[in-house]
Design a protein that fits this description.
The complex is a heterodimer. Chain A is mainly α. Chain A is built from seven helices and no strands. The model of chain B has no long low-confidence stretch (mean pLDDT 93). Classes of the chains: A mainly alpha, B mainly alpha.
Chain lengths: 111, 230
């Protein structure tokens, strides 16, 4: 239960920070960084957070089902922009793989 | 009867039931296009259409899942903590490659979409397309993106990476297992990471790390790009 409390507390703190910084970054993402910091600096015991975090991470796919079902109202927009979406996504995905893999491999093997 | 079907409890139960059923089907077949998430989207849409339940009603009824999604974004901080060991002694190469990849990814997807005539909502919706879905929707929603487009496109990008990732990396002579893991996680988030885990422990761990870092990097960089560049 303590683990759940820490996660909610980080989220809440993240929302408060987001509110006072003009909502530049969404509160739950700030909360994620806060949780990482609390674990990193041993303020919070990782053992306490692990079971809740594992459960949440493992069921993530279920949690965004309602968003995906939104396809039933947004499919017209997707259909209208279908080719732009497909070409942009495929090219960009390949570029990311290439950039990340190549830069890392280059930097590590140079030493 | 319709009252029961339209109730929050019924719709939540159906959603989770369909998801469990689709997961079992996927485990038996292992066919990437039968991915439980895609099947659940389709089955749920069919269900709502049959009982003519409007999407807004369904969204409101499943608010509990949305809340859980928010918590799962926070718990990614735990994943980052668990995977940070992988960065030991390699902080510079890891961060340089991820941040560059993040910028290249955002700029390329936004500008290609723009030149192919996509409107701004679509551009913003697909800009965080290589980030794990909970973070991607948290980024695109406040910027004016359409979260259903974000979640479907991001998911399909993950599937693409899952299916062609290792083949492509080998073709491009990116053969270092750690480099492959990083590339999979940063381009294809959780869906790519699932594939990387099957490939090997090193690839899987690096991929998980890349997924978390890519989320943080995109959350910080995308609002700037959105404001100044398009």
């Amino acid at each position: 239960m303590l683990g759940l409390f820490y996660i909610l507390l980080c989220w809440l703190a993240g929302n408060i920070i987001a509110y006072f910084t003009g909502n530049y970054i969404s509160g739950n993402i700030i909360g994620m960084i806060l949780l990482f910091c609390l674990l990193e600096f041993k303020v919070v015991d990782a053992e306490k957070v692990r079971p809740v975090a594992k459960f949440l991470l493992g069921s993530m796919a279920l949690f965004f089902v309602p968003y995906g079902v939104g396809l039933m109202v947004s499919y017209e927009v997707i259909m209208k922009n279908l080719w732009a979406i497909i070409v942009a996504s495929v090219v960009s995905t390949v570029l990311i793989m290439l950039t990340v893999g190549w830069i890392y491999q280059r930097m590590v093997h140079r030493r | 009867m319709m009252e029961i079907i339209r109730s929050d409890l019924f719709l939540l139960t159906v959603t989770i039931g369909i998801y469990c059923g689709c997961s079992t089907l996927y485990r038996r077949t292992r066919f990437a296009l039968l991915h439980p998430v895609l099947l659940t989207f389709m089955a749920m849409i069919a269900f709502l259409k049959i009982f003519s339940i409007p999407y807004e009603h369904y969204r409101a009824a499943t608010e509990a899942l949305n809340f859980a999604l928010g918590m799962s974004v926070v718990s990614l901080g735990y994943l980052l903590y668990e995977q940070k060991e992988q960065m030991k002694g390699e902080i510079l190469p890891v961060l340089t490659s991820i941040i560059t990849g993040c910028i290249v990814g955002i700029i390329s997807v936004v500008y290609i979409a723009k030149y192919m005539g996509a409107d701004r909502t679509v551009m913003t919706s697909i800009a965080p397309k290589s980030v794990t879905i909970p973070i991607a929707v948290s980024i695109s929603k406040p910027l004016g993106g359409e979260v259903s487009i974000t979640s479907v496109v991001v998911f399909c990008v993950g599937l693409l990476g899952n299916i062609i990732g290792f083949w492509l990396l080998n073709k491009l002579r990116i053969t270092d297992p750690k480099a492959q893991g990083l590339a999979m996680g940063s381009a294809a988030h959780g869906v790519g990471t699932a594939r990387a885990i099957e490939h090997g422990a090193i690839e899987g761990a690096m991929s998980g790390l890349a997924m978390a870092l890519m989320g943080v990097a995109t959350a910080m960089i995308l609002p700037l790009v959105e404001h100044y560049l398009y």
